[in-house]
Amino acid sequence: MEHYAWTVALTRMISAVFRRGGDVTFVVDELKAVFDPRGGQWMSGRYVPSLLAAIGEVIERHHVATGFIPGEDGAVGDARKVAIAGDEARFRTCPRCSAAALAKIEGCDTCLSCGYSKCA
Q1: Closest Cα partner for 57 from 24, 32, 26?
Q2: HSE-CB of 19 using CA atoms within 13 angstroms
Q3: Per residue in 18-67, pLDDT tens?
Q4: Which of 40, 45, 50, 101 is least enclosed, having the fewest CB within 10 Å?
């Protein structure tokens, strides 16, 4: 309960930024750059400088898994591979950038070009 207020505020702000759309990859970088003045913690054999940095890493893993950003090896996530390679990969026009790159990924219409997403 000690961190309830800032946790709620942070999650609402992240949600608002993601709903707004566009290039939201900066959120990961900003969160991962936060250092706790009391020191970080070792998690899964590596040092994480703060709880906020850990949240940033979780969001980054999600972005990689869904193909929103490439992984460290440059590979795209399974969801994007399925959308690109599948028979249902008939792309529609994105309402934001007008590219023929709108595909249904995890139940949401997602633009593979600009990142626009509109959940169905």
Answers
A1: 32
A2: 6
A3: 888 777 888 999 999 999 888 888 988 889 999 889 999 999 988 888 77
A4: 45
Neighbouring residues of 66: CB distance < 8 A, sequence distance ≥ 6: 77, 79, 80, 105, 106
DSSP symbols for 15-68? HHHHHH-S--THHHHHHHT---TT--EEETTEEES-HHHHHHHHHHHHHHHTTS
77, 88 Cβ separation under 8 angstroms: no
The structural domains of the chain, with segments of one domain joined by +, span: 1-65
Residue 72 and residue 120: Cα distance in Å, rounded? 30
